[in-house]
Amino acid sequence: MSSVECRNIKKDFGDVSVLKDISLDVKSGEFLVLVGPSGCGKSTLLRTIAGLEQPTSGDILINGKSVLNLEPRQRDLAMVFQSYALYPHLTVHENLAFGLRLQGLAKAEIDARVREVAGTLQIEPLLDRRPRELSGGQRQRVALGRALVRKTKLILFDEPLSNLDASLRGQMRYEIKRLHALTGSTMIYVTHDQVEATTLGDRIAILNGGRIEQIATAREIYENPVSRFVASFIGTPEMNFLSGDLVGRPGTEIGVRPEDFILDQGDIEARFELQEYLGSHSLVHATIKGQPIRVMSPVSLAKKTGDTLRLALPKEKLHVFNRESGARVNA
Q1: Assessment of whether the complete model's pTM goes beyond 0.85
Q2: What is the pLDDT of residues 97-145, one digit of tens each?
Q3: Strand ranges of the sheet holding 262-277, from the earlier edge strand across to the other edge
Q4: 13: which strand partners?
Q5: If you compute the radius of gyration of the chain from its CA atoms, what whole number of angstroms results?
Q6: Which positions ≥6 away from 79 have C-beta within 8 Å?
Q7: What is d(CA 159, CA 147) in angstroms, rounded to the nearest whole number?
Q8: Is 226 within 8 Å of 213 (Cβ atoms)?
């Protein structure tokens, strides 16, 4: 297994600072997810670890040794791309074997590895096909296979599921999680999708504006976000934000997750607007003193637009943020 350390990484493109003094330790065998909005620097950080970009300053260590002077192929890692990066004129077998041939491995060893990985990914029937004959999910499995067949202990993923529909993304999340458990490889995974982040990662690093805002487990981030940005980014539906004046905290915003409101109790009045039936629950849209909120309800409410809702806000469920800086303050 491989450990990865990023030490004070900065990356500028001309006058634009993309990575701003990022330090990060990834443990051997860990699955770390880098998540954040478009342009936050997550893919640039991954490409810098891979050696596809050189940092403006700082250092990157793999297994305790600096790799800044090593080419990507010398870093003993594999990378899975959003675009699959398959050779269209080669069969699946030839695509899987391509990197091994460049390493000069014997034909028997190459064939054995290809067969092993094809079995693991359940793509054996596809070995004689070319990429154009495959579905999106099958192409992504082949792209995974190209990484696995090299038997590296560090695998980097750059938004590999972005081109797949929702159903296939769910299947591939399971597949990637299963492969991590099976191989024990260290994996660093970039995504803008919080569902991928929370379901895949042992830990999640949330990036914003070229900096890491918080790095922790999904549960820790969900329950104790360090900033308004983090709180708004993790959780579906998104956290509600209300003026702190509502609970006697001027100069603050309070965050309440939709599932943490208590319906039909308390002394807070809200105006019912509409509700969305979602099967196991309903998502209620309402306003408190003109401020929009969303509330999860286990049942559909017999309400019409303009009706009054009574809500309670349990103190232990409130998240309080400085209105100016967005930083978390003691509740």
Answers
A1: yes
A2: 998 998 899 999 999 999 999 998 889 999 999 999 999 889 988 998 9
A3: 291-297, 282-288, 262-277, 308-312
A4: 16
A5: 24
A6: 50, 147, 155, 156, 157, 158
A7: 15
A8: yes
